[in-house]
Amino acid sequence: MWTVVALAVIVILMAAVAVVAVPFMTLQRLPEEAKINGMSLVKDGFVSAVLVPLSDHEVALVDAGNDVEGKALLAELSRRGLGPDDVKAILLTHGHSDHNGGIAKFPKAQVMALAAEVDVVEGRSSGGGPILRWRSPRPTGIHLGRTLEDGEVMPLGPYQVRVFAVPGHTPGSAAYAIGENLFLGDSANHGKDGRLKAAPWVFSMSAAQNRKSLVELARRLASDSSIKTLVFAHSAPLERGVAPLVEFASR
Ligand SMILES: [Zn+2]
Question: What is the pLDDT of residues 52-75, one digit of tens each?
């Protein structure tokens, strides 16, 4: 009898591990580091953040990693002769904890996210989804210095950042076009087959809404030749302009 119960428990546990692990196993792995059109991708374990130089002595970040000590980001800053106070802005693609871990290490940075994501960023909502909805939200201590809206164009150093709402992974997931890069956070990924993949449903509020948002984003950017690279938080960048996004939308 107990053998049967033990076997059943093992099978259930293995299935649970598979559900969580499989979405990651099909992704093109993040490089240790990469230069992407004048910006630096910094790998922080299983997630990346990107350092965006604004001037000789100022940078912005897209997301802030998983590590609450911010070690990888601080090391990249130090290689450039910069320190934590030189980070002037942090643009969050969304509020999951593996994207905002290092924020407290950059006290001079203005933290920004879509208005629809404020509750997730500040820890009043889990953001939803089959797994994360069961985690009770806790205050993160993060204070958003500025909220963003879909369609907004925001000056940031030499850039004009274009802000796109792509709800689905979380309620206020954002994509940002900065220079020649389009940052998609967790809303999409680079699959091992070289194609763009949707967000993993198991960690997302709504897979259907995520797909709808990516299709709409493809429509808005289909004729945009200024974007050279798609940047994802958990997989390697894709360097074929917006083509992979447009191909995804047509499948
Ligand atoms: Zn996420």
Answer: 999 999 999 999 999 999 999 999
Q: What is the DSSP letter of 27?
A: B
> Cα torsion at 72, 239, 215, 39 (round to 10°)?
40
Task: Report in angstroms the alpha-carbon separations of 63 from 91, 125, 182, 231, 247.
Answer: 6, 19, 13, 12, 26
Ligand 1 centroid–CA 181 distance in Å is 19
Ligand 1 centroid, distance to 186 Cα (angstroms): 5
CA–centroid distance, residue 203 to ligand 1 (Å): 7
Pairing of strands 110-114, 87-91: parallel
- Amino acid at residue number 148: L
* Cβ-based neighbour number of residue 247 at 10 Å: 13
Nearest CA to 174 among 148, 196, 202?
148
* Cα 125 to ligand 1 centre (Å): 13
